[in-house]
Amino acid sequence: MSILQLNDINTYYGGIHALKGISISVEKGEIVTLIGSNGAGKSTTLKTISGQVLPKTGSVIYEGKDISKQPAHITAQTGIAHVPEGRRIFPRLSVKENLEMGAFIVKDKKVIKERMEQVFDYFPRLRERLTQKGGTMSGGEQQMLAMGRALMSKPRLLLLDEPSMGLAPVIVEQIFDIISDLNKEGMTILLVEQNAFQALQIANRGYVLQTGEIVMAGQGNELITNESVREAYLA
Ligand SMILES: Nc1ncnc2c1ncn2[C@@H]1O[C@H](COP(=O)(O)OP(=O)(O)O)[C@@H](O)[C@H]1O
Ligand SMILES: [Mg+2]
């Protein structure tokens, strides 16, 4: 059984038909990537999953349950963590406070501390910057903080929206390495990227999204060598 399934999803912003009948699936333990140009509907797909926007028709099935109409704050408590495009950390809160926000439903201080230690295993930089205000961190550090905050909820499915956006190549490498490591430790990941080449390199499978429709699907290594994918997204 897939951990996540989108069946024929149609999502609108007023009169704008952003997702036009999208169907995708994610199996437990996979990295699945959704690639496509600016405006293709990648972020809208993640928002439809996490409940920030509701689909007009179609279903989102998570762990066998229909969550299509479930509000975001409930979905966030059922094992889906969404790291949004642009990170959206709390700029005036410290690194520690940002991380604590990710585990706000956990009351047990010991559990929070344990989870924070696990986050530091992936992002040692965050431990060094515990008291620093989120907004004064570099882009790469803010991405690490946003991912760390998401991990604090102990998700079973991690939604990542353009984690490499705006980062220097060496930092992008680090972020992708960490995404790979998280997956090797068992995390299921749906990764949205304009950086198609790097996303397809670490993904088991990928979908190509174009103006609200899936136009291609395949194994990561198939898509990376596909002529039309190369022309459109890897040039
Ligand atoms: N809040 C919004 N209001 C109106 N239209 C939106 C909104 N967010 C996105 N859109 C439109 O929906 C389409 C898909 O956008 P988006 O999902 O952000 O694409 P991507 O993440 O692939 O760049 C685009 O045409 C975009 O202009
Ligand atoms: Mg986007």
UniProtKB/TrEMBL annotation:
Alphabetical UniProt keywords:
Amino-acid transport, ATP-binding, Nucleotide-binding, Transport
Please verify whether the record's keywords include Transferase: no
Q: Where in the numbering of this chain does the ABC transporter domain appear?
A: 4-235
Superkingdom of source = Bacteria
Keyword set includes ATP-binding: yes
An example molecular function term from Gene Ontology annotations: ATP binding
Which residues, if any, are the signal sequence?
A: none
InterPro entries, A to Z: AAA+_ATPase, ABC_branched_ATPase_LivF/BraG, ABC_transporter-like_ATP-bd, ABC_transporter-like_CS, BCAA_Transport_ATP-bd_LivF, P-loop_NTPase
The UniProt similarity line reads:
Belongs to the ABC transporter superfamily.
Report the protein name in the record.
ABC transporter ATP-binding protein
What species does this protein belong to? Fictibacillus norfolkensis
